[in-house]
Specification:
It is a single chain. With 550 residues, the chain is α/β, with parallel strands linked by helices. A 5-stranded mixed sheet has the order 4-3-5-7-6.
């Protein structure tokens, strides 16, 4: 007997996918999202697919695969927000299929259904489908690679070996060689637990590694052409930088030990509190169920699952370079693990406690959503409050569901989608109101202005560069600023405008309120104190130089 009837399960998946897809039709937030979108655009504009460039300069950080996907999408749909986000969303959908497939292999279809509902309604996966970086790609790729490796482990045909290598390779070409550790970690634990020492000598695993190295040759070639074959290329303020060495060491292991050009300050407890909010609304019952399963000497889950999660979690926690979205890649595995625990919660005799935890958490989160909606006071805030309250009523109705286990899963699923709806349909688009680079670019496009100059070191440059139809010219120093001619157009922030006044006469064509919306602070979030936190981005047209500067 299925946990849910097939028709109901399909409709719940459709609803969840639709809410996740809201992010496809909103803008791209400043930070990595706009940066990656711009790099992919430069591939199209420059007709050069082996080079990664930003503002006319060589760029070395992430591998090429997500940029190739975005560029391919641009060819089909044009250079726009939707085209940038679509490939990542498709890989997130791949994650749904493989989460279900791996659940069925490890357990049964009931666990598969629950795992998929958890996957679709997890907070940080919902966020990542609006604020698109590399993680939606990796989320699908890594669980796909693990699934096919598991099929190889169980004697699957040669095609599974090839698919395992393929998915591992595209993951490597998305984030770096470190992802192989994530894919392999659970199997290492599994073999040790079961004392399957012969697996360490099984030629199939070494063949997968060999095929993976063959499949990543396009990435290695691209790095060689752009960097190793061009020792004069300036990267991180230095020349003679090897792109291949960076790929195999500095970009991943170098960050881990803090020896690479990009450094961080690791906190061993960073991912503990990250997990608590990023895996909402499922995060609080997860450690509770693991603890009681262990205490009552029941199965805490398949070693492949908890091995993958724990080793990855510990590795990330030990790293000196940490970001919240890194944890997303193991959420499919965590979803299956939690689904197994929920499917067996009756055996623990604690279902009443789990029920109360989720009921209290649900009420608390709904109250928080209403409060946040009011405090931000964005467009139609009152309507969002009303919707959340109506969903809250539905949430309460679900608690009359005759099966407590089903109502726990279904009510938590609805709660997760409500949070996703709040973020994707309300908060995210209302934050982008203050991303002034988008608005400046639309003004430039509408009036067909050229030439347009921007300051290379201003973050808004990225948004202007991506949204503008025409090319931009970049000013890399204050000396470049003094070399402009009358009639040129210049985009600059309000602080820089004050420096321009002694040099040029100019007219302000337009300006927009500005805030770096990926770095929200309380004073900005609260609508009554927001105005004092805002800057302005200006588009000006230069006139003659002032006599004092001639």
């Amino acid at each position: 007997m299925f946990f849910l009837k097939r028709k109901l399960f399909v409709w719940l998946c459709v609803l969840g996918i639709a809410i996740n897809a809201i992010g496809l039709f909103t803008g791209i937030m400043l930070g990595d999202g706009v940066l990656y979108a711009l790099i992919a655009k430069n591939m199209i504009v420059n007709n050069e697919y082996f080079f990664l460039t930003v503002n006319g300069l060589d760029w070395l950080d992430k591998p090429h695969f997500p940029f190739w996907c975005a560029a391919f999408s641009y060819h089909i749909f044009g250079i726009n927000d939707f085209a940038y986000k679509l490939p990542a969303f498709l890989f997130w959908l791949v994650g749904i299929l493989y989460t279900y497939a791996l659940s069925k292999r490890l357990y049964d279809k009931n666990v598969g259904q629950i795992a998929v509902l958890i996957y679709i309604s997890t907070l940080h996966l919902l966020i990542s489908n609006s604020d698109v970086r590399a993680e939606p790609y990796l989320t699908g790729m890594i669980v796909a690679a693990i699934y096919h490796c598991y099929r190889v482990y169980n004697g699957g045909t040669f095609k599974h070996l090839v698919f395992a290598a393929f998915w591992a390779a595209v993951a490597v070409m998305t984030k770096g060689i470190f992802v192989l550790i994530i894919i392999a970690s659970g199997f290492l634990v599994l073999w040790i637990i079961r004392k399957e020492w012969k697996q360490f000598l099984n030629y199939k695993w070494y063949l997968i590694v060999l095929l993976t190295l063959i499949f990543i040759l396009p990435e290695l070639y691209s790095l060689y052409v752009q960097f190793d074959a061009r020792p004069d290329a300036l990267v991180f303020g230095s020349t003679n930088v090897s792109g291949i060495k960076f790929f195999f060491w500095d970009s991943q292991f170098g960050r881990f030990v803090n020896s690479g050009p990009i450094k961080g300050a690791g906190d061993p407890f960073f991912y503990v509190h990250t997990l608590l909010w990023a895996f909402l609304p499922w995060s609080f019952i997860f450690p509770f169920l693991v603890y009681f399963s262990f205490k009552r000497k029941l199965s805490i889950g398949h070693p492949l699952l908890w091995g993958t999660f724990l080793l990855t979690f510990l590795m990330f926690s030990a790293s000196k370079f940490q970001l919240p979205h890194y944890l997303n890649v193991v959420f499919p595995i965590l979803s299956i693990w939690l689904a197994h625990l929920l499917a067996n919660v009756d055996k623990l005799s604690v279902i009443g406690v789990v029920d109360k935890i989720q009921r209290c958490l649900g009420i608390l989160l709904l109250v928080v959503l209403v409060l946040l909606t009011y405090l931000y006071h964005g467009t139609f805030w009152w309507l969002i409050c009303l919707v959340v309250l109506l969903i809250g009523g539905f949430f309460v109705i679900l608690y009359d569901y005759k099966s407590r286990m089903k109502r726990i899963v279904l009510s938590t699923f609805v709660l997760g989608l409500t949070i996703g709806l709040f973020y994707g349909a309300y908060l995210y688009p209302n934050l982008l109101v203050y991303q002034s680079g988008d608005h400046i670019a639309h003004y430039i496009n509408e009036h067909k202005l050229a030439p347009v100059y921007v300051m290379d070191n201003e973050i808004n440059t990225l948004a202007v560069g991506f949204q503008c139809d025409g090319p931009l010219d970049y000013l890399r120093s204050d000396e470049d600023l003094k070399k402009l001619d009358a009639g040129d157009f210049l985009v600059l922030h309000n602080e820089k405008l004050q420096e321009l006044s002694p040099i040029y006469d100019f007219s302000i064509l337009t300006s927009f309120l500005d805030y770096h919306v990926s770095k929200i602070k309380p004073r900005f979030f609260y609508y009554e104190s927001r105005e004092e936190t805002l800057g302005k981005l200006y588009l000006v047209q230069l006139k003659d130089k002032k006599e004092s500067d001639l």
